[in-house]
Amino acid sequence: MKLLKKVVATSADGTSATTLFTYNGNKIVSIDGVQKHVDFTYTDGLISKTVTLNKTNQLLETVEYTYVAGELIRIKSPNNYIINYIHNSDETVSYEKLTINSGNQEVKMYHGILYFQNENFIKDERILDNTAVGVTSSYSISFDYDSKHNPLFNVLGYKKLLDYNETISSNNSLINTVIISTTKDEQISSSAKFYKNSFAYDLENYPTEQVSETSISTNGYLKTQYFY
Question: Given a cut of 60, is residue 177 above it in pLDDT?
Answer without folding.
Answer: yes
